[in-house]
Amino acid sequence: MDLDLRKLRYFAAVAEHRNFGRAAEQLFITQPVLSRQIKAFEQELECALLVRTTRSVELTAAGTQLYEEAQRILGAVTAAVRRVHDAERGAQRLVVAFSPGLRVSDAIRAFTSRYPDVETDVVPARWWQPDAPLRDGRAQVGYLRQPFDASGLRTIPIGHEPRVACMPATHPLARREKLTRADLDGETMLDAASRPMSSIEEKFELIAAGHGIALISLSAARSYSRPDLVHLPVTDAPGAETCLAVAADRREKQLLRDFLEIATATLRPT
C-alpha cells in the first residue's frame, strides 16, 4: 500500500499531543475531521494505533512504532523538499543535528563568520536515536552524545560530561548532596528499555509525576531545569562522551570539512 503522508502527519500530531483537540488546532482542522482521518488511517494499516478514552489518548505498541517511524519519514520528506528548493535557488545550506542539552551555537556562529553566505539550520536529535538525522538525510553533521550506533559514521571526540540522577523534588533522596549507584538500588529507573518515551520532555514529566528516576547528562538536566525536579551527581556513574559525527560513506565537501575543523576547535573544552 502507498503511505498517505497527510494522514501520517495527522497521526503524528495526535501522538505528540496525546489529545485530538490540541492536535486539530495545530493542524487547522476540526476535531471530527481529524478523528475520521485517524480511523481511516488505522483501517488502511489494518491495525490499531491509539487507545482512546474520555480523558486521554495513548499509543498502542504499533502506534508507538509508527510515531518513531513518522518522525524520521516526515523529517526526511521536509529535508528533501528544502534541498530541492535550495538547488533551484543555488543556495548552500549546512544542517547540524544536536543532542538534547548540547549547545552547538558557538560553532555555528564561528562558521557563519567565515561563510556568511551559507545558510545554517539545526535539527534536534532524539535522545533514543541521535544518529537518525544523519542516516535519513535531515542533517550533514551531528553534535551528539554517545552511546549510539556509530556504524557507517565517522566520529570526532569532543568532550565528556557527568550523568546525574533526576528525581522529583519530593523524593527522599532529593535532600542528599550526592549519590552513588548503590543509593539507587531498588529505585524504579526510567530508560528507553523499560519504558519507550517520545521525547526528553515526556521523560521529565514522568519523573515529576513519580514514575521513577533517570540518569541523564548534566547538560540536559540544566537545559530542562524545572522547580519540581532535582538532579544530583552520582559519583560512580559512567559519564557521557560527546562527539561530532558525519556519514562515513559520503564524500565530505570542503564546506563540511571546514565546519568540522571549526566546531572541533570551538566545542572542545580548553
UniProtKB/TrEMBL annotation:
Domain HTH lysR-type: 3-60
GO cellular component term, pick one: protein-DNA complex
Domain of life: Bacteria
Molecular function terms from GO: DNA binding; DNA-binding transcription factor activity
Keywords for the protein's UniProt record, in alphabetical order: DNA-binding, Transcription, Transcription regulation
Family: Belongs to the LysR transcriptional regulatory family.
Name of the protein: LysR family transcriptional regulator
